[in-house]
Amino acid sequence: MSKGFDELISGVQKLGTKRLSVANAGDKAVLEAVKDAELDGIASGILVGDCDTIKKIADEIEMDLSRFTVVDVKDPGEAALKAVQYVHDGEADMYMKGFLDTKTFLKSVLNKECGLRTGNPLSHVCVFEIPGIDRLLFFTDVAFMPYPTLEEKKFIIDYAVDVAKACGVDMPKVAPLAAVEVVNPKMPVTVEAQELTRMNDEGEIKGCIVDGPLSMDMAIDPAAAEEKGGLDRKIRGDADILLFPDIHAGNLVYKSIVHMVPGVRNGCILTGTKAPVVLTSRSDTKDVKINSIALAAVVAEALKNKG
Question: Which of 77, 166, 184, 234 has its CA 20 to 30 A from that of 106?
């Protein structure tokens, strides 16, 4: 089990280099991440976009483009379709957003002819390495699905479990979070958490342990679980996956950790697609982008092994 990104990246390096296709790759921060990911043995790249822009940036950051496949497509939308086609056709293992807006990028992901759609909802999984916590934590959904229904939460859990297992967690513990750890009919989130737990108990949600509703402290702090009398729970401060009730709760916690916790590391991918998708923000650091590429690589390997 990977307890941090250094272990995760070390594991990726043993898998053999994956192929990453980048949509409209003329972005300095993205190319810096792709350059380092290639040098670290994580992934080689297919860079689709304006060749002149890509070459100019590559010269600035001393990036050897001979180590990459560069495909000249001037229009950003067409570049996205060309880049996603490589993944659709099996010539690349992962898909990454470059210098284009998220709407255009997602249109390429969902394209019926050359995209990566499966017919199921898409979801976002963020993986955190937080000082003081002895394992990776998987947050979902903090950036994509605004108000997931009960059925959508089942998909979200399934996706996050697959990501956690790809990172070496054999039986992930999933905590559907709420403000309280008891069921209250006036708080629908707690009722849905109870229903997800039942679905897990009866085999409708497999490959993991679901225990909810749980408050955040009981989910991640063993001392709090003991103090609150939660020693009879299946999760006692040792959750791997934190399932947030909606995007507001998830995004607020995500940004609080990113901006207020010294030494934190994270990476994120879009799930529910035929291949892992690296959808990072322009404000994300180079390290976040590299961690996200590494995360996509281990998920790509797991998908390959599943056939």
Answer: 166
Give this prediction's pTM. 0.95
Written as six digits, the tokens of 52 are 């002149």
* Tens digits of residue pLDDT in 195-204: 999 999 999 9
**Nearest partner of 163 among 284, 258, 276, 22, judged by Cα:** 276
Domain boundaries, given as residue ranges, for the chain: 5-117+273-306, 123-260
Helix (H, G, I), strand (E, B) or coil at 128: strand
User: What whole-number distance in Å separates Cα of residue 30 and Cα of residue 98?
Assistant: 6
- Integer Cα distance of 145 and 123 in angstroms: 6
* Token couple for 180: 């309280």
Residue-averaged pLDDT of the chain: 95
Mean pLDDT over residues 116-130, rounded?
Answer: 96
Main-chain phi, psi angles of 83, to 5 degrees: -65, -45
Tokens of 18: 């994956």
- What string of H, E and C letters represents the secondary structure of 173-218? EEEEECCCCCCCCCCHHHHHHHHHHHHHHCCCCCCCEECCCECHHH
Task: Could you list the beta-strand ranges (E) of the chain.
Answer: 18-23, 43-49, 69-72, 94-97, 123-129, 137-140, 173-176, 209-210, 241-243, 265-271, 277-278
Task: Tell me which of 3.40.47.10, 3.30.360.10, 3.40.718.10, 3.30.450.20 is the CATH number of domain 123-260.
Answer: 3.40.718.10
Q: At 285, is the secondary structure helix, strand, or coil?
A: coil
The C-alpha atoms of residue 267 and residue 5 are separated, in whole angstroms, by 9
Q: Does domain 5-117+273-306 have CATH number 3.40.190.10?
A: no
Tokens of 118: 């499966």
